[in-house]
Write a structure and sequence with these properties.
Helix content is 17%, strand content 37%. The protein has 738 residues and is of the alpha+beta class. The strands form ten sheets. Strands 7, 8, 9, 10, 11, 12, 13 and 14 form an eight-stranded antiparallel β-sheet that branches. The radius of gyration is 27 Å and the shape is globular.
Length: 738
């Protein structure tokens, strides 16, 4: 009788769960890409002179938009620092200021820079209209009406603001409301002052290229001479006569921009050139002021990226000497443009390097007499968050708890007393208060949207501010399957991270597999981090009747130098080998039909997808290649040469790594997607592969080109383009895999 009751209970429980599932709604692309499931994102910035933080709060009903300041100790609102409804002394009613998207504080917290109408410039950088709000005087000044500005930055005394318009650097006197140009001959495609070009942004992650001296008397800047770089034509089809827009784009093996360093004496209006050598065939990958105001540190990288030198420049004479050198003759040196974090009142600095196999911190004296490791282990330092000269402590984030994660730690200058400050497996983006007693923590995991909380660095007490309850409640009403982590052995010493999503409704029998990959050396995909639109789209795709997996093969960061550089001079082969291992692993362990597997990827992942159906034809049933590189001779030189060295030195390597070389191998199942105005991976790549496939009499491939769209293939909110893109992909996969 007891067994019978248990059986009845199990049946009833199953029926109850089934009924609950039946009551849930299907997730669809329209809801995902129209913002229905967007997390409640908060624009948060810490104040510089008090243990307070601030964020933008918007009242969606009445429209007011304000910047609230909260105290770390109490997490209570202290003040309203700015409102978009401004009321002057003589005004009877407030005037509604425009909607704003971001802000930042002056060093003394007396002013707030308000950013509006933000739009992308290249991949990372953004330009916007900016306003300066004086908190005490309650005055709002426009920075410039002559165009959107790049990289506005307050002077150390908060009285001036530097910014860039049309490749020229300007300085605004905030009190006098006057502006003077520092440079006048800047022009897009010719000379760029204080800003990195697209090559440096894509290749090194550099954006802003000027720095105030600590005393505010000087500004150091880079000048990019792009006249040495060939133009690449981009066609825009907005008008009856198509327009050609030229873009400076150095292909692999071609000339790079000639970059010089200058120090501008603001009082005397004098430029001092810094001696970085006479060789134009090199890269300048970072500038950093010493606290003494007399010295500028400059990173100089050789064209082959095997030698990185740190120069110390006298800002009065411009003369330089080499302080520190890092070399990697067998491959390349990893560059960190934000390197050099001064400690001990400028007597030494912290330096990130992977010279011992993993990215770690080293203390280097300013005269380079000593180099001492601060952190070590088979894990990677991701960011230096803050330093505290009073307590001799460093706050940094790392993946010590797991290569999928990001956690906050602190450690003494001497490498002792390492303490983990965050809790909870997942991804923690953190900001440290000025007194180092608290940090603001945005914490999420693969299946859980972000929680915003304040944490004490001493007691580790957590105070949750926002838990995204509204979004969590909404998600529970839909059939959204969870993602599950897995690992696969890449070789005897290396393992790959991945996650897998199966349909929400249990499907009997073997499932076709969609294997999503990026695979490039700049970022990981299979992180334990919430990503609303991307992973929700992958969950939607799983509900169409697929198992969907995401994998970080060898060649990606997060697991040390050997893992990331496994594909040096042979990109593509190692990654495809890893994808095949993942396919076999999932087929053995997760009821996957190994005869119905598709590779899907974007950019570098698109390259791998195209390679899978050409060089490795027959190993996968189908592939979706979005904005792929198909010939490495067609890509920009920083990235291509880092992977393959110069074309003149590795002709066979370029040929063997490019899908166009193997068009004759193609069998079936390729879907090519590209934006016609892609300024990162040019349309030329997909057109050339299409041309070579046609020449080889291969007619059974599909292609779709999005007119006037760039690399991101996006068109705002609601994002109709992304809805149509993934609808097309699903239809293609149904034809190929079902």
């Amino acid at each position: 009788m007891k067994k019978l009751l248990i059986s009845i209970f199990i049946i009833c429980a199953s029926l109850f769960v089934h009924a609950q599932q039946q009551g849930k709604m299907d997730i669809d692309l329209e809801k995902i890409w129209s913002g229905h499931f967007d997390e409640r994102k908060y624009v948060v910035h810490l104040m510089n002179q008090s243990p307070r933080f601030a964020w933008i709060q918007t009242d969606t009903a009445s429209g007011p938009q304000v910047i609230l300041s909260l105290d770390f100790n109490t997490t209570r609102i202290v003040d309203t620092l700015f409102s978009n409804q401004i009321k002057g002394e003589t005004d009877s009613l407030p005037t509604t200021f425009t909607y704003f998207q971001d802000f930042s504080f002056s060093p003394d917290d007396s002013k707030v820079l308000i950013r509006t109408q933000i739009e992308p410039l290249y991949t990372i950088s953004e330009k916007s209209f900016n306003y300066v709000w004086d908190i005490n005087k309650r005055t709002l000044r426009v920075v410039s009406a002559n165009g959107k500005q790049l990289y506005p930055g307050f002077s150390p005394d908060s009285k001036q603001l530097a910014y860039i318009i049309d490749a020229n650097l300007y300085i605004m006197d905030i009190e006098k409301n006057t502006t003077v140009p520092v440079t006048v001959d800047g022009s897009a495609g010719q000379f760029l002052y204080g800003m990195a070009d697209a090559l440096y942004e894509n290749g090194f992650g550099m954006t802003k290229a000027y720095e105030w001296s600590p005393d505010g008397k000087y500004i150091a800047m880079l000048r990019f001479n792009e006249n040495t770089v060939k133009n690449y034509p981009l066609t825009v089809y907005e008008r009856p006569y198509a327009e050609i827009k030229n873009q400076r784009y150095p292909l692999a093996g071609e000339m790079v921009p000639d970059v010089k360093v200058f120090v501008y004496d603001i009082t005397n209006k004098l430029f001092v050139p810094v001696d970085v050598g006479v060789n134009p065939d090199q890269y300048i990958t970072g500038i950093h002021w010493s606290p003494d105001n007399k010295t500028l540190f400059v990173q100089r990288l050789s064209r082959d990226q095997k030698k990185l030198e740190l120069l110390k420049a006298n800002v009065v004479t411009g003369k330089t000497s080499v302080v520190y050198t890092e070399e990697s003759p067998d491959n390349y040196v990893r560059v960190y443009p934000d390197n050099v974090y001064f400690i001990k009142e400028g007597q030494s600095f912290l330096w990130k390097s992977e010279k011992e196999g993993f990215t770690h911190l080293y203390e280097i004296s300013t005269d380079a007499a000593t180099v001492a490791p601060v952190t070590s282990g088979k894990w990677e330092v991701l960011e230096v968050k803050a330093v505290d000269d009073t307590r001799n402590e460093i706050y940094y984030s790392s993946n010590e708890s797991g290569s999928r994660q990001k956690q906050l730690y602190k450690i003494n200058y001497d490498g002792r007393g390492r303490t983990k400050l965050t809790s909870g497996n997942g991804y923690h983006d953190t900001w440290i208060s000025n007194d180092k007693r608290f940090f603001f923590d945005e914490f999420s995991s693969l299946n859980d949207p972000p929680v915003y909380q304040v944490v004490s660095t001493v007691e580790k007490e957590q105070k949750k501010l926002i838990e995204n309850k509204e979004l969590n409640d909404r998600l529970r009403n839909y059939k959204i399957p969870n993602a599950y982590f897995f690992t696969v052995q890449a070789n005897d010493s290396m393992t790959m991270n991945g996650w897998l999503i199966r349909p929400y409704n249990n499907v009997r029998g073997k499932l076709p597999l969609v294997l999503y990959v990026y695979g490039g050396s700049t970022h990981q995909e299979a992180l334990d981090r919430w990503s609303d639109k991307f992973t929700l789209t992958m969950r939607w795709l799983a509900n169409q009747g697929y198992a969907v997996a995401c994998i970080d093969p060898r060649g990606t960061p997060g697991k040390g130098e050997a893992f990331r550089k496994s594909n040096y001079k042979v990109p593509g082969d190692i990654e495809i080998e890893d994808l095949l291992k993942v396919k076999d692993h999932l087929a053995r362990n997760y009821r996957i039909d190994s005869s119905k597997v598709a590779v899907m990827g974007w950019s570098y992942g698109g390259y791998l997808a195209a390679l899978a159906q050409t060089k490795y034809a027959g190993r996968f049933k189908a592939a979706v290649a979005i904005a792929p590189v198909t010939n490495w001779r067609f890509y920009e030189n920083v990235y291509a040469e880092r992977l393959l060295s110069m074309p003149s030195e590795n002709t066979d390597g370029y040929k063997n790594a490019s899908p166009v070389s193997f068009a004759g191998n193609y069998k079936s199942g390729l879907f090519l997607v590209h934006g016609t105005a892609d300024d990162n991976v040019h349309l030329h790549n997909s057109l050339e592969l299409s041309k070579q496939l046609t020449a080889a009499m291969k007619a059974n491939f599909e292609q779709h080109f999005y007119t006037d769209k760039t690399h991101n293939l996006s068109d705002g909110m609601p994002n109709i383009l992304r809805m149509t893109l993934y609808t097309r992909i699903n239809e293609f996969l149904k034809r190929e895999l079902k």
